[in-house]
Amino acid sequence: MERSKNDLVRLVFSWSLQDILNDELLIDKVRQIPTTFSSGSHYLDSFIFPLIEETRTELCSSIKMVSKAPTWEITDIELSNDYEPPLNLLYRIEIRTVADSDENGSIFEPETGQLIALTDRRPTCLDDLSKPGSPYNIASIKRVRKKNDTEDVYEAKILTSKPIELEQHWQKDDTYIYGFGVYLCNMTTFIRIWNALNSDPDGPSIHIIKQLFQPNSGVGENCAQCFSSEKYSFDTSKLGAVIRSFDLNDAQEEGVLSCIAARECFHKNTVKLIWGPPGTGKTKTASSLLFSLLKRRCRTLTCAPTNVAVLELTSRFLRLVTKSLDHLTYGLGDIVLFGNRKRMRIDNLDDLLDIFLDYRVSILSKCFAPLSGWKHHLELMIWLLENPEKQYLEYLNSEVKRDYEIDDDCLKEEKEVLAILNQQTNQEKKNICYQDPNISKQNEWKRIVNKTLRENRLFFKEGNRCKYVKQEKMDCIFHEKGIKRLTFHEFVKKELNSIRMQMRTFAVQMCTHLPTSFVSLRVVKSLFECLDWLEVLATILSNNSVTDKGFKLALATFFTDECKLSSTTWQYKLDMTRKECLKRLKSLRDLLILPDFFDENSIKSFCFKTSRMIFCTASSSSRLHAEGFGRLEMLVIDEAAQLKECESNIPLQLPGLRHVVLIGDEKQLPALVKNF
């Protein structure tokens, strides 16, 4: 069979409505998948026509139920800039969702990869798609984004099977629309499988697949050259205590150790099978294996057929990881979970949200931002400690120019905010030791980290609906509504606390989301030690005995050898603590150098390339081909018996793959295949 040159969407476009409804359209081309194969091309081609028939069956089923399908109003249509007939019939359309677009009355959102029918009226039956004057026309959504946060209106780029002939017409609610987009099915998984099946059958990407269907390939056997019994015992002894702590039985422990041993071999590729009926601890074994691979710094992709299976295994694995982290949340940045946020219902899973890719990108984009991120606040703090007088002068000059207008409600709200901050400062005072700021604060930092992570999750879930008090609004309380202008001491104290709190948030975020290959544990500890010193400095400035005159005098003696103050005075503590803070801040400036990009795509690529453990569905792993994921050592597929064999080609073709572990039970229900 000749390799296909057309993509699957254009093949679907070539079908008429009658073709889609014809169950015998491909009856002479679909053949049973053989059990042996003569070549890589023979293997891949065996799935082509079954996949085409599966696609047709899915589309046929959707079209027969078109009267109940989600429907959107098309409010605007224009040619795309890359519109090139007769093939590239690309349009830009505006879609408005309606509340009754599904049986539950909820909103059904358009997504990339969806196939839609374009009609001039809401279809009430199948015949409405083929009426005279309403020719059957379908489109594939190539790109889509929400137009704004207040309306359910989307802008989409679509590829159509025929030129659009819809005309604008008036509706009863005094709105004008061009027609309707009727959801048919989502082609994303079909397209991903199609692309995998149409890869180069002689290329390096399918080398491990070829090994699977070669007779007497020795699949599952460890390399005799690398693993004598003595070497096997030596290589696994370091992890032995950890693995035994998982309370595995002998068979489970042997499975984990065998897979770890296989990973160390560079002479041959291996495919391991972990088999067991329901209830025999396959998920427990899999999570223990993944934890061991993480400790061995093995770059691993873990897949499963469904989101539910992926989330279950990821959750079990993450529980093991969080118990063993060396410092706070440091190490979570090595783990990435990605997929469709809505279908995964990730917002309901706080334990997994910290490793979810979209959430991580939103956090790191704030940390990397040049004018508002970590580097900016680090420089602000250094500038404040080195030049507080200049900072205060700028503040006074700005006060002259500003005209504040605040109402009583604003004033009341900001007083409440300050009261909370003061309460936090008082709590911090209780945990400070002036003489030794390096004293263990692990429990206190755990509280701070947990609080920061909760706030970050809330902001991600709520988006723009989440209300946060801005620093600019907090300044209001010090002005014309009866509140005095800040003194020099008050200004420095306020600025120090404001910058310090933001730096603390960034520190928690970077500790949680930066990979260990990018930032070392030594740097992370230095970061938190620096924040501890800044906290000591803030506590000293909050001392009731500090006067504005004395504060200026203490600053005047800074960096001179003339200071003869007693080591028991607050001036001496201020001087010494300030010097120590500056030294540590400048050290961090050299030690912690963040990437110079902060756009979403660059950060996603950064997360993929630097992570060690990645979790997703088998279908979603196609994204790693395009992201430049780099070389992969190990692939683990959970519930492998429930995954379509043709779909498993997607992760199996990732570059650099050397070892595969398949976990499952062939006696469980297989993957659902329609009309196969």
Automatic annotation (TrEMBL):
InterPro entries (alphabetical): DNA2/NAM7-like, DNA2/NAM7_AAA_11, DUF6469, P-loop_NTPase
SUPFAM superfamilies linked: P-loop containing nucleoside triphosphate hydrolases
Bilayer-crossing regions: none
Listed GO MF terms: helicase activity
Domain DUF6469 residue range list: 101-198
DNA2/NAM7 helicase helicase domain residues: 248-674
Protein name from the UniProt record: Uncharacterized protein
